[in-house]
Design goal:
heterodimer, A: mainly beta, 13-stranded parallel sheet, 40% strand, B: alpha+beta, 2 domains, three-stranded antiparallel sheet
């Protein structure tokens, strides 16, 4: 179909098409609204035909299995306070694929609910951050399983990617930046994997909350600056893996609360305000072979109870020697300083940062620990930066 | 209230206490300063609610950034500390945690679902608990200024209308 073809509207084309047909869409601007696909079709855009929702309408609703949509552009889908309007909405389906689609100025861009095996890849999603609270999520999944989301580029939305009650899914190689709240937001979503994603310059980084069995591998968390910002927030997470990630230039690299049985290994923490804040409510976590380089504070905590284990990490602030030359420091390293404990309780004392008195206090505390948790230590810190 | 009256008395005293010579601009400037000082100290004495800044404030309990202007709660202690929450269940979990004793609580407030950012006292608000209400943390509770407003909004759908005391028991 196209502007100069026999069929000029997609709505008409959908109605004429039979199960399993492919609809080719030629370039042009189409002002169509509330399109519903309720049979197995393939929509194939050629030369990026544009669908304009005129800021009033939802554009496309997919409600059939094995539908494929690719090569289309969507602009200005509508906003509604009560309903989550989206450029593309997918409801109750199996094996739907959305690829090579561009979506601009949408409230929600792609909104998927109650679906299995959804594939969303190679899409460009750009929101309009001008209307702050009026922007929804870029890719929003609710009650889904076995979804695969990869190679997408998302910016200017509330949360770049949002998962709620999503299981057994993969998020790979996406680039999420300049989103107003989180680059990625996970809630109540178990057994998911995300790897090789970049989360840069988002409002508050990435939040993974109330979930189990989440694997986070090889991601970049960068440039999440702000008074209450962090690279990665872990709230009530259990039995998960955080490995080979890079946390660079964040106010707080990782903020952990109520989390247990996490394996935090081979990550790089560089040039953060705090590399990690591990609240006393966390237990049974293992921090092994991570590099801590050039952070203002390595570890912050809010209590004296420590039920976590730090071992074989590289700390650039380690002051011990390695007399037996086994590559390991001879005395344990205490990554939490007295001053970092003070700030946790009284943030205004940051005023004294790098002052003589603070350095003195820290030295004294290191010699005779009183306020800092004695057990918060790395028994075998490595002397040389680890190759990650 | 007593403090405020005292303050006014003080200012009045300063204004009248000046000697005839002191009508210079220097003196009046000094009075303005004293005035500001007194006013400032009075302000910082009172425990007051704060408007929620959406997009910036964090939920004290779940640490999520508040984004949805239809939802949110606030708890003000008698000492003037303000805790903000993104959803009713976060507020309730915080209250149940015992971090602030009920006797130290001055006000408990909730955002009016129908008026962006407006804070209502929980005791006067009316609540809808319904599956069709999508809240940030899944409490499914929305607050309204009066029972009539809630009934009107519910419009015979399957939502149930409750008071705060009832909501406290129902929401996990």
């Amino acid at each position: 179909m196209g502007k100069n073809q026999t069929i000029t509207s997609l709505n008409k084309a959908i109605q004429l098409a039979k199960e399993g047909d492919t609809i080719r869409i030629l370039p042009g601007v189409y002002k169509e609204k509330n399109l519903v696909i309720n049979k197995r079709l393939t929509l194939l855009g050629e030369g990026s035909p544009l669908f304009d929702g005129e800021n009033k309408y939802e554009i496309l609703l997919i409600n059939a299995n094995k539908v494929e949509v690719s090569g289309l552009s969507f602009d200005r889908s509508g906003y509604s306070a009560m309903n989550d309007f989206a450029a593309i909405k997918v409801i109750d389906t199996d094996s739907v694929t959305i690829s090579n689609v561009q979506i601009f100025n949408a409230y929600f861009a792609i909104h998927v609910s109650n679906s299995t095996r959804t594939q969303i890849h190679d899409n460009d999603i750009i929101g309009s951050p001008a209307s702050e609270q009026m922007t929804g999520n870029g890719i929003h999944l609710w009650k889904c399983s076995q979804a695969h989301i990869y190679n997408n580029n998302i910016r200017g939305h509330r949360d770049g990617i949002y998962f709620e009650f999503v299981t057994d899914s993969k998020i790979e190689k996406n680039f999420s930046r300049k989103n107003i709240r989180y680059g990625l937001h996970f809630m109540f979503s178990n057994s998911d994997y995300y790897g090789h994603n970049k989360f840069i310059d988002n409002g508050a980084g990435v939040a993974v909350m109330y979930s189990k069995n989440v694997t986070m591998l090889n991601n970049w968390f960068q440039q999440n600056w702000g008074a209450s910002s962090y690279g990665l927030l872990l709230k009530d997470i259990t039995d998960s893996h955080i490995e080979k990630n890079k946390f660079i230039r964040n106010t707080v690299g990782v903020l952990m609360e109520g989390s247990s049985r996490l394996q935090v290994k081979q990550n790089l923490f560089q040039a953060n305000g705090w590399a990690m804040k591990v609240q006393a409510s966390c237990d049974d976590n293992l921090f092994e072979k991570n590099n801590f380089i050039g952070n203002s504070f390595d570890i912050g905590t809010n209590g004296t109870l420590v039920l976590n284990k730090f071992t074989q990490n590289y700390w650039d602030k380690y002051e011990g020697y390695d007399l037996d030359r086994d590559g390991r420091g001879d005395i344990p390293h205490h990554p939490a300083t007295l001053y970092s404990m003070l700030i946790e309780q009284n943030p205004t004392t940051l005023l004294l940062f790098r002052s003589f008195i603070v350095t003195l206090l820290d030295k004294a505390e290191r010699a005779i620990p009183s306020l800092t948790p004695e057990l918060l230590r790395d028994e075998r810190p490595v002397m040389k930066q680890l190759l990650l | 209230m007593l403090l405020q009256q005292l303050g006014w008395l003080l200012v009045y005293g300063i204004l009248n206490g000046g000697t005839p010579k002191s009508k210079s601009s220097n003196m009046s400037l000094r009075i303005v300063y004293i005035w500001l000082l007194v006013a400032g100290s009075l302000l910082s004495c009172s425990a007051q609610q704060e408007p929620i800044i959406f997009g910036t404030d964090l939920c004290h309990f779940c640490k999520m950034t508040l984004m949805d202007e239809k939802f949110g709660c606030e708890l003000v202690t008698k000492k003037g500390k303000v805790f903000k929450f993104d959803d009713v269940n976060c507020l309730l979990r915080f209250m149940r945690s015992g971090a602030v004793a009920p006797k130290d609580t001055k006000e408990t407030l909730v955002v009016n679902f129908e008026k962006k950012g407006e804070l209502l006292a929980v005791s006067t608000a009316s609540f809808i608990y319904a599956d069709y209400i999508l809240t940030p943390m899944g409490s499914r509770v929305a607050a309204f200024s009066a029972k009539e407003a809630a009934v009107k909004f519910n419009n015979n759908r399957d939502g149930k209308i409750y008071t705060w005391e009832e909501i406290k028991k129902i929401v996990p």
